[in-house]
Structures are given as C-alpha cells and as structure tokens.
C-alpha cells in the first residue's frame, strides 16, 4: 500500500545523509514522502544520541510526535539512528508511544519496518554496525546549491569521552568509484558547494590498504563541476604534507578546515586518548597557516574532562589566544555511560565545567570579532542564500562560513539575488559575529 511517511532528522550531517537515503527508499517503494508530520501514516524520527543535549532533543521530538499520534494526526512512530542503537531495550519500554526502532545498522530496512508497523507489528531491528557501507540514492533535503558527501562510516579513534564507535561501528571507507559516481550525480543536479564529511575524513582508505587516500580523492573531486569543495572533520594527527599540498594547490578546495582538537594540555589529551600533544598542535597550526595563506580554522573544545585542573584550563586559554582559531565550538564535558571517561577519577563539577565553557566562548568571541574586523574592506566571493525577511536584504556565506554552524554575511541593499548565485562583495562592517557587505558591480 502507498503509505504516507514523514521524516525528522536530528544531529549531524552524517545522520542527515542516512535520513535522505531512507527517504529515497520510501519514495522508490511508492510511498508519499511528505515534509510535514501531521497527516502521516508513519513518522520517522532519525535521532542523535551522542551527548545529553542531543538525547534530550530526540526525546522531546518523540514526545511531540506522540502528542500528534494521540490526536490522530499520526498513525505510527518509528525511531531510527543513534538513540535507538544506544538504548535498544529501554526506548520502547520507556516510550510506549514508539511503534518500532531501527539501529544504525538497519537504515536500509526502513521500507519493511514501515510495512510491519502499519500491519500492527513492533519491529526492533539492529543490523551489524561493522558491515560495509550500504550504497543508495538520496532525497536531498539541503538547498539545491549545496550537499554533503559522506566518504566513510564509523570511527576507530576511540576517544575516551566518545560513544560514537559503539553506535556507528568501526571505520569503513566507501569505495572511491562509488563516491565519485555519487559526486558526479550531485554535480549534475546543480550542487555548487560539496561538503565532504565523515567522522574522520583524514583516515579515508586506511582501513582498506593502510594508506591515506584523501589527497587522491580530493584531486578527483576537483575534476567535477563544483565551485566549492569544503572539508569537515580532519583529525590533527592524520594531516600529512601530501594533504596540505592538495588543499593549498586546488582552487576549488576552500581554505577552511574543521580540525577538532578538544584540548591542548598534554595530560588531558592523554586522558582523552587523543594522539599528539601540545607541541605537535602548535607545529601543525603554524605549518598550515604558512602553507595555506588566508586559512580559516574551526575546532571543537571540551572543558571539564575528569582531571582538567585550573592550570590545565588556563593553559588551554593561553593556547587559544596564541593560535587564534577563527571558529570554535565549545562543549562542557558530558559523562556518557559506556565510555572510558565516565569511569575516570578526579571529576570536575558540572557547574565548573559549564563555567569554563562560558569563559572559552567569551574568549573565542573576541578572537572571532577581531577576525571579522580584519575583514572589513576586503573583497570576497559570497554564495547567496536568498532573501532574509528580518534583515530585509539577501544573506550569504563566504569560504569562511560553513552552513548551519557559522555566521552569515548580510548583503546590504539587496533583495533579488537568486539563492545559489556567487557574487563579489566588499565587507563593510562586523556585527555580533557576522558581517555586512556591499555587492560589487
């Protein structure tokens, strides 16, 4: 029967790709895939279960859809993704409104799961999370001018604070031929900004033959009809001279690198099970900035890991002042059950971890403001993303802003630039972490 199915995707871009694949499978099965939940036969909630805030968001969405179900607006609820994988037994017991669950190894079983719940069954499917990455079409849910390209699944880094390897399995690279075929299809659809993602893109290919194949893959992607290629989640210890050379020399590759470091103190890094030390990080960032002029860096920082004393935190503050990373996500440590860090002694009080995070946010805001002020008067290329009714002008992004996580550029006095258009602009001002600019003739 051609059921009506709606989807809610939560969490990271990798999760979004999984959701887009499920949407394509339902479409190909003859179902109607709708954008809004009310009126659906089945609502699929694709969840994140990484940290407490993500779990809370997932549960809030489940309860919201459950309220619609109670009102007769939704018939069945399927929960997929990391929260399902993490709480295989508890989820349906504690949330009886949920009709079925699929783990991260069972995304491609979505059609049969829909059939089962509509037939009155309660599927619980948890396929092998270490199986090879399944290939399939996607229903793109991003704006037509940009899309994510996932090149691998899982993670082998086993950071002490992180549950991802237990939810997503070991690191598995997709075949380069499959990746390039998908990328060519995205280019043919009109995608102009390709965002290459994985839990760790720098490790690409090492699980196959022990060699790092990311530089080779980037060279091939640059032959396709993309205007921008953006790289996300490069682990610092895997960044080689060959990779730096490709990034520096390929015009399509944006000089914007997302390199999560989490900390700089040697003891905290050891506790985190991170490879490398502070001296290595300083050397790496100096090398990157010298070989890639105009580079903008993004990173992630965790405050309050067990064992982070005041001296280690002060060292982190001084490190950030010295390195001056332009973009930074700061997160207070969240003790996740099943991780090595959860069992560590020398706990930092949650309130103190939050205080330290707030101090880093303030510090990073000043660094970002200084960077933005330095951009005033510069001529930049901007990807327009359409008209913003609040600011009453068009908004866009330059190479230095990744979608959904960084700020916007407000193109003052504009109203009719089509979304997906690249224009030249001159930066005229900075405000609250964002920029204003005037379009150049």
Task: Give the proportion of residues in helices.
Answer: 25-40%
> Any idea what the radius of gyration is?
22 Å
Structure summary, number of beta strands? 19
What amount of the residues lies in strands? 15-25%
DSSP helix count?
Answer: 14
Which descriptor suits the 3D outline? globular
Strand count, sense and barrel status of the largest sheet are: 6 strands, parallel
**Strand line-up across the major sheet:** 2-1-3-4-5-6
End-to-end gap: 55 Å
* Uncertain parts: none
Instruction: Give the overall average pLDDT.
Output: 96
- Structural classification: alpha/beta
Describe this structure in words.
The chain is of the alpha/beta class and 441 residues long. The chain has 14 helices and 19 strands. The strands form four sheets. It has a six-stranded parallel sheet, with helices on both faces. A six-stranded parallel sheet has the order 7-10-11-12-13-14. A five-stranded mixed β-barrel has the order 15-16-17-19-18. Helix 2 links the parallel strand 3 and strand 4 (74-81). Helix 9 packs parallel to helix 10 and helix 13 runs parallel beside helix 14. The longest helix is centred in the C-terminal third of the chain and has 26 residues, at 350-375. The mean pLDDT is 96.
Summary of the model, kept short:
35% of the residues lie in helices and 23% in strands. The protein is of the alpha/beta class and 441 residues long. The longest helix is centred in the last third of the chain and has 26 residues, at 350-375.
Produce the secondary structure layout:
Blueprint: E1 4-9, H1 13-28, E2 32-34, E3 40-47, H2 52-70, E4 74-81, H3 82-86, H4 90-94, E5 100-102, H5 110-118, E6 124-125, E7 146-150, E8 152-153, H6 164-168, E9 172-173, H7 176-188, E10 193-197, H8 206-209, H9 214-221, E11 228-231, H10 241-249, E12 253-258, H11 266-272, H12 278-291, E13 296-303, H13 310-323, E14 327-332, H14 350-375, E15 379-388, E16 393-397, E17 409-411, E18 422-431, E19 434-439
Parallel strand pairs: 1-2, 1-3, 3-4, 4-5, 5-6, 7-10, 10-11, 11-12, 12-13, 13-14, 17-19
Antiparallel strand pairs: 8-9, 15-16, 15-18, 16-17, 18-19
